[in-house]
Design a protein that fits this description.
This protein has about 170 residues and is mainly β. The protein has three helices and eight strands, in the order αβββαββββαβ.
Length: about 170
């Protein structure tokens, strides 16, 4: 996939209703358990310990610091809806396309004025309203790692590829 394909998709700056989108690609790892009840995380690290029970993917090709300024700004609105669509391929696949993943799940949360989205290593979605962290990409999520489909988690534990689509619906 080219860098252009992973860049933010936007509405062209016309203030339309289309969401701002960022796509992050990563892979699963044998230590993925997805047991954490309040967070879900992707990291650019190439390793994972058994203690990382919120981490569902490693070797992420991007981090919040790489997101477009427009996307980060849209996430700073408390009325914005942020949808994290998690698409996972089969173990052994080279990659996964979001229009036809083997497994898919979704977490919906919101933005917050205190989100900075400047971390260069990992990104975290939260069920709480905690924002004192450059890694937080959404708050008040309707799910976390423990809520993900268990077949999806099993595929990630077998090293399947993952594509995370973050879409921000701007507040009216």
């Amino acid at each position: 996939m080219s860098d252009a394909e992973t860049d933010a998709e936007s509405d062209g700056g016309d203030g339309g209703d289309d969401p701002l989108v960022e796509v992050v690609r990563a892979v699963g790892h044998e230590h993925v358990t997805a047991e954490h009840a309040s967070t879900v995380e992707l990291t650019t690290d190439d390793w994972l310990t058994p203690a990382g029970d919120c981490i569902i993917g490693i070797e992420a090709d991007r981090a919040p610091r790489d997101f477009s300024p427009e996307f980060r700004e849209a996430c700073r609105n408390a009325e914005a809806t942020i949808t994290a669509t998690i698409g996972v391929g089969e173990p052994g696949d080279e990659g996964v396309e979001l229009d036809d993943p083997a497994y898919v799940d979704e977490i919906v949360g919101r933005g917050d004025p205190d989100l900075t989205l400047l971390d260069d290593r990992s990104m975290v979605g939260r069920t709480s309203d905690y924002t004192d962290d450059e890694r937080t990409i959404l708050v008040d999520g309707d799910g976390a790692a423990a809520d993900l489909d268990r077949d999806l988690v099993a595929a990630l534990a077998d090293g399947a590829p993952i594509a995370l689509r973050l879409a921000v619906e701007r507040a009216e």
